[in-house]
Write a structure and sequence with these properties.
Length: 113
């Protein structure tokens, strides 16, 4: 795994270096509210790629967190429904038990006199 990561990092570095070397033209970058002095086109491409990757990773983390919370909510709702069903069953059993004891108590009081 380490070797794979090392190879990938080397390839990314080599690609970035080739971008800077091949695209050595100087360009002006006009941002909406400011203007950056002339810079190397390859360097600008690398900066744009890195900013895009950072934005993508941040967006993926946010979406992963939202998805994780949604799955957790579904699990909790399912668990709540199961607990409610158990509670209803327990209440039903308790009411049956009370009615049976009441019936036994009534029959015992009727037989005593």
């Amino acid at each position: 795994m380490r070797y794979l990561i090392a190879i990938l990092l080397f390839l990314v570095f080599a690609y970035s270096l080739m971008l800077v070397i091949v695209n050595s033209h100087q360009v002006e970058v006009n941002l909406l509210f400011s203007q950056v002095p002339q810079m190397n086109l390859g360097l600008m491409l690398i900066i744009c790629i890195m900013l895009g990757m950072i934005a993508g990773v941040m967006l993926a983390l946010i979406l992963f967190k939202v998805l994780q919370m949604k799955l957790e909510n579904q699990r909790l709702i399912k668990e709540l429904n199961q607990t409610r069903e158990k509670l209803m069953q327990t209440q039903h059993n308790y009411e049956q038990h009370l009615s049976q004891n009441a019936d036994v108590g009534l029959s015992a009081t009727v037989k005593q006199p």
